[in-house]
Amino acid sequence: xxxxxxxxxxxxxxxxxxxxxxxxxxxxxxxxxxxxxxxxxxxxxxxxxxxxxxxxxxxxxxxxxxxxxxxxxxxxxxxxxxxxxxxxxxxxxxxxxxxxxxxxxxxxxxxxxxxxxxxxxxxxxxxxxxxxxxxxxxxxxxxxxxxxxxxxxxxxxxxxxxxxxxxxxxxxxxxxxxxxxxxxxxxxxxxxxxxxxxxxxxxxxxxxxxxxxxxxxxxxxxxxxxxxxxxxxxxxxxxxxxxxxxxxxxxxxxxxxxxxxxxxxxxxxxxxxxxxxxxxxxxxxxxxxxxxxxxxxxxxxxxxxxxxxxxxxxxxxxxxxxxxxxxxxxxxxxxxxxxxxxxxxxxxxxxxxxxxxxxxxxxxxxxxxxxxxxxxxxxxxxxxxxxxxxxxxxxxxxxxxxxxxxxxxxxxxxxx
Length: 416
Description:
By secondary structure, this protein is of the alpha/beta class. It has helices at residues 14-31, 43-46, 77-86, 90-101, 115-124, 132-138, 142-168, 177-193, 207-220, 234-245, 247-255, 257-277, 279-294, 307-316, 335-341, 395-398, 404-410; strands at 3-7, 36-40, 300-305, 325-331, 359-365, 382-387. Helix content is 49%, strand content 9%. It has a six-stranded parallel sheet, with helices on both faces. Strand 4, helix 15 and strand 5 (359-365) form a beta-alpha-beta unit. The protein is elongated. InterPro entries: AB_hydrolase_fold (IPR029058).
């Protein structure tokens, strides 16, 4: 009789472990009825917790920006920038939608220059030259910000001008668009300066410097906003856009930071704690493997999910690995990735797997961004098995043991 020791991953506590354990027992039982599944639950004793009751969490002293219904306050300028960090053109699109919904259609008139066309032309001519003397005089970080943005300003301005022409065509809307366009140009220039995929280091920008640049851009468009924030009727446009895009996340995150942090501690904290206190987790796995061997129930298999897979690889790569383990099955694990980063505890990147390391099967789902492959990392020592849970990430990372195909693939691989 084969014994399968089920080792859970990060963030798992007693209730969720029992659910996953039951799924594994049921899934393996359908394909190999003789298999005995044993527990290895380490989360309660060796997982992370806020040992001081959350004393490290800042106390929120005011709730500006968050209304009683969870919506973001239109008097909070940071609310607008939170939106533009995600989508620099969202505010412009909301402005255009409001113009069309408000019945500001004008139709085509030969020879007429609509106000939005004038704004678009001005946007294409934006420059940071007017703010350069102010930057040199003020010193500090403003000259560095301007130098970072100048190479990307023309492309950003052209994109915003095209958006204005495309989205406001056929309307008479233009009143209040200047600061919105200025913010869009700035946000796009920052995005471009940081690289298309965040390849470059995020720009460190002080809010006062940002407002100076945006104010200068707005002045060139004929606006009067020198604070970098919205004025008058345009304010509501930004807030509507923000609440449509980010309210469920940003408002709740600011209001309930304590609860969100406490809720995220098991998942993120377990990973951090393992890096410096991982011996306890490995000892728990060693003990579970030893008990399985001593029970006399045949060959021992370690079936490990996520962080549990990392701990098993570390354990089995140690000089004194537990005896009797014939197969390691990692599921949605980051162990090959950490080896490539040279971040495993027991195995350096230039070291091969020990000769005594057991056969290793690594299961992954292409949609699971936390699942990695190992065949090219450890040639000849790892067999990758791909499954398709038909779930998006992050649910793909937690759905393996509800996927019957997993057990069908494992059935012929498990020792008898």
